[in-house]
Amino acid sequence: MTDTPSTYTGRLVRLRAREPEDEPLLYAWFNDPSVTEHLAIRYPLSHRDEHAFLERAASVSYAGASFAVVTRADDRLIGGVSLERTSPENRSAVLGVAIGDRTCWDGGYGTDAMRTVCRVGFEMMNLHRVELDVFAANERARHVYEKVGFRLEGRRRDAHYKHGRYQDVLVMGLLEGELRLD
After folding, report:
1. What does the alpha-carbon distance between residue 50 and residue 55 come to, in Å, rounded to a whole number?
2. Which of 8, 14, 87, 169 has its CA 20 to 30 A from that of 60?
3. What are phi and psi of 150, to 5 degrees?
4. Is 152 exposed, middle or buried (0-12, 13-18, 19+ CB in 10 A)?
């Protein structure tokens, strides 16, 4: 598939609206412990939960810009990204990302999705700041975020309890003009 260059298109991925047909894959991914290991999700999700999520995420707006991540090569759904908890006064949002298709891990898809959604935030939503939380032990994700230009801003000690232990949560931020495109 060829795309006309746009803010929503990266080198490997394209962002699109989430669709009801995405539900079976989301259900499978977010009930897979290897996918949710580094996510805040603790409990099994039902099909009803996923349908409700898709219903909430269906309307993309400044208040909640949630996108499906699909490969440019074959238009295959591989994950999702969102810019939420936006603050118009501060021109800021919180970024969430998950690449659920494990065959796309370590292939540059997550990095490309991050760059693309940050471009959307800065170029389409007029954001000045994008921030995210990451578990301190999730070195693979931290590497991606730093590669994109995010900087470590703080540590919330023992902030998340999962798998029988507390984990530190790192706060990382990216300001307008700091996005690294290569």
Report:
1. 9
2. 169
3. -65, 145
4. middle
Would residue 94 be called left, alpha or beta, if left means φ above 0 and alpha means ψ between -120 and 50 degrees? beta
Concatenate the DSSP letters of all residues of 138-157 into one string.
-HHHHHHHHHHT-EEEEEEE
Partnered with residue 88 across adjacent β-strands are none
Domain 13-128: top CATH class: alpha beta
Q: Pairing between strand 129-135 and 92-99? A: parallel
- Would you tell me the crossing angle of helices 109-119 and 139-148 to the nearest 10 degrees? 40
Mean pLDDT of the chain: 94
Residue 100 corresponds to which amino acid?
G
d(CA 10, CA 126): 19
Q: How do the pLDDT tens digits run along the chain, 182 residues long?
A: 444 568 999 999 999 999 999 999 999 999 999 999 999 999 999 999 999 999 988 888 888 899 999 999 999 999 999 999 999 999 999 999 999 999 999 999 999 999 999 999 999 999 999 999 999 999 999 999 999 999 999 999 999 999 899 999 999 999 999 999 87
Do residues 117 and 127 lie in contact, with contact meaning Cβ atoms separated by under 8 Å?
Answer: no
Q: Is 124 helix (H, G, I), strand (E, B) or coil?
A: helix
Give the whole-angstrom CA distance, residue 178 versus residue 119. Answer: 11
Nearest-CA neighbor of 26 among 64, 6, 56? 56
